[in-house]
Amino acid sequence: xxxxxxxxxxxxxxxxxxxxxxxxxxxxxxxxxxxxxxxxxxxxxxxxxxxxxxxxxxxxxxxxxxxxxxxxxxxxxxxxxxxxxxxxxxxxxxxxxxxxxxxxxxxxxxxxxxxxxxxxxxxxxxxxxxxxxxxxxxxxxxxxxxxxxxxxxxxxxxxxxxxxxxxxxxxxxxxxxxxxxxxxxxxxxxxxxxxx
Length: 196
Description:
Layout: E1 11-14, E2 17-20, H1 25-36, H2 41-52, H3 60-71, H4 98-109, H5 121-129, H6 136-145, H7 154-166, H8 173-187
Antiparallel strand pairs: 1-2
Helix pairs in contact: 1-2, 1-5, 2-3
């Protein structure tokens, strides 16, 4: 699908039937936040279906598949992780970075994300990807994704480590609990092998 030549979808095809989907950017941001929650996958799937569909289709597996297709901007789910099979490291969080993203859209596009009635998720994604480097959120994402290499000077390494730490995204609750358990085991002479 080419956003330049085809209209963005407001329905998804499930079993040969076009099914309406909630396409506003806020829905997909809530979906991303939902995926970060520490709840069972079945509950995530149910809540995702409720988020995206005015009426949940009978073929729930196909409906979930189409949510993933829609969320990824028209890419099939296996294409969405750059084809590597590895999860892509997150360099932004709509929850944590909301103010920076809001400011960037207002500054660059003149769009007040609080005031706009509807903005299609695919258009939002394209605009987010097109933010200029002088927006603070782009600068922060750059710090988060930069790879510290041996070729960098000592000062560069120190600077980028400081920036990575300063702008690090909070760890999910499950990761914080795991790190806390490892720290507790190390401090008390416990066995960390079972925790790794």
